[in-house]
Design brief:
two-stranded antiparallel ribbon; 170 residues; 3 helices; alpha+beta
Length: 170
């Protein structure tokens, strides 16, 4: 569980935050993502001058994909920076979706929903690995093996075009 003790944060002015959200957590329900391990969060929380909270750091999610070329299972670690801003709901009148609100009398701040949102927005849905030489990074097969081969054009004109041919003027 990723929570910040706001009373302790007000006393210390800055807190280190290290936590993880397991792949079995209910927050990943209906996310269509498959994780090979826990989503790890490393950040620090600090107070703003107005009494809000700023969380800065990074998250790392080990995601399990099927290769878009060879369909073998791939475990890819997606890592992104994290920046969350919480302000007191009584003081916030804007519509910025990046600013989250918290109650003025709250004692703890739960970050799991914000982490879920960040991960779902940043993790790519599909993975198509390829080196510069055109080989799949998972199996090493040449990309040529997976390319679509177009049919050769037929000789002559398609009879369905004959009505347009009659309208043609030189």
């Amino acid at each position: 569980m990723l929570q910040i003790d706001l009373l302790r944060l007000r006393r210390d002015r800055r807190l280190a935050l290290n936590g993880a959200v397991t792949p079995e957590s209910e927050i990943w329900t209906d996310s269509e993502l498959e994780f090979s391990g826990a989503v790890e969060v490393t950040a620090s929380a600090s107070l703003t001058a107005e009494g809000g909270v700023v969380v800065r750091g990074s998250w790392r999610a080990p995601v399990r994909y099927e290769c878009g070329r060879c369909l073998k299972q791939l475990d890819i670690a997606v890592e992104r920076p994290l920046a969350l801003l919480y302000v007191a709901s009584e003081e916030w009148e804007g519509t910025d979706p990046d600013v989250r609100t918290m109650g003025y009398q709250e004692r703890t701040l739960d970050l799991e929903d914000a982490i879920r949102e960040e991960v779902l927005l940043e993790v790519p849905r599909y993975h198509l690995p390829a080196d510069e030489d055109g080989r799949c990074t998972a199996c090493g097969d040449s990309v040529e093996r997976y390319r679509y081969v177009a049919e050769e054009p037929r000789e002559g004109t398609d009879p369905r075009w004959s009505a347009l041919k009659a309208l043609q003027t030189d």
